[in-house]
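Model it.
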Amino acid sequence: MAAPTQVVLEGVGRSYGRRLVFRGITVSIPDRSSFLAWGPNGSGKTTLLAVISGLVACTQGRVTLYVDGHILDAAGRRRQLGLVSPILGLYPQLTAEEHLELALKVRGFSSDRAALRAVLGRVGLGRRQRDPVAEYSTGMAQRLKYALAIAHEPRILVLDEPFSNLDPEGVGMARAIMDEQVRRGIVIAAACDRGEWADAHTVLSLAPA
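Modeled.
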């Protein structure tokens, strides 16, 4: 029987030159669960999520992502992982639809116009799907990042400050996406406030090194 989705960190550390960001992080995040890393600014939350996502290499230890009995390589992470983060940029001249079409193509998926519209409707951008992102507010841009993260139905969803720039309705949208993701895979999030996600299954507290 195929192994479930799982994210395993073994003695993970990251340094930039002589500056240690974090070290010795060991945790196993099982299928259908949630993980929250929390701490103040400068504690390494964004770096940790970037390491898990494969955007930054760890300088100590190992991160392994499993889906259906397979260890994900770089291509597998692109297909099985979705990311919402301030470090991800958008293209001002492209529309929301064009962003989704490009993201799916890069991940090796075909795009269906009706499915794209459904995803954009889910994040509250159904009426603005053909407007260039240059005309979006910061909250609308955050909603688009959610659409980009879930359009390919990833098994692992990584969220850096998941409620940043969102109004109350947007926070409700984000929470609904997180709850659904836990039912089918894994959610990994980072926040400054532990109370933002009080019901996370596993919690890691980070402090500035």
